[in-house]
Write a structure and sequence with these properties.
The chain is mostly helical and 145 residues long. It contains 4 helices and 4 strands; from the N terminus they run E-E-H-H-E-H-E-H. The model has no long low-confidence stretch (mean pLDDT 79).
């Protein structure tokens, strides 16, 4: 397949593009590359630290998911935990002691025994907060001298 270039002023036809068109396309390409670099720098400089963190966290979790897909580390994407609120620390410790390394990178799905609730993130957040508070309890002797 051959492509002809028609010059509207001179009326000539040629197989190669006109030199002024090639120069114009190269200038546009250089300008686009320069502007893209400037836009990227501006976005990184002007962003809120919280937004930067979320972007980095998103990239990290995406890379982790991609790695899991290629290495078949996770058969299911969720780790289901049934925990009693009154024995949160001991139940969590007992459950986690049986997990393997590949299970610990899965997303948690929490179910509190005796409570109705759908875990859309709120139950997991509550579990993390309550568990972190239970670390400081002197009965568990985790952070004592």
């Amino acid at each position: 397949e051959r492509q002809f270039w028609f010059h509207t002023i001179t009326g000539s036809r040629q197989l190669s593009p006109p030199p002024e068109w090639v120069e114009h396309k190269e200038q546009l390409k250089l300008e686009r590359e320069r502007n893209a670099h400037l836009r990227k720098e501006k976005l990184e400089e002007d962003q809120d630290p919280a937004v930067k963190f979320r972007m980095k966290r998103f990239r990290f979790f995406k890379a982790l998911r991609d790695h899991n897909k290629t290495s078949n580390l996770a058969d299911t994407p969720l780790m289901h935990l049934k925990i009693r609120r009154s024995h949160m620390f001991t139940d969590t410790l007992a459950i986690f002691s049986h997990f393997k390394r590949k299970d610990l990178i899965k997303k948690t799905k929490i179910e509190f025994v005796g409570e109705d609730g759908i875990d859309s993130g709120g139950l997991t957040k509550d579990w993390y907060l309550s568990l972190s508070r239970s670390f400081s309890v002197a009965v568990h002797n985790i952070f004592t001298e």
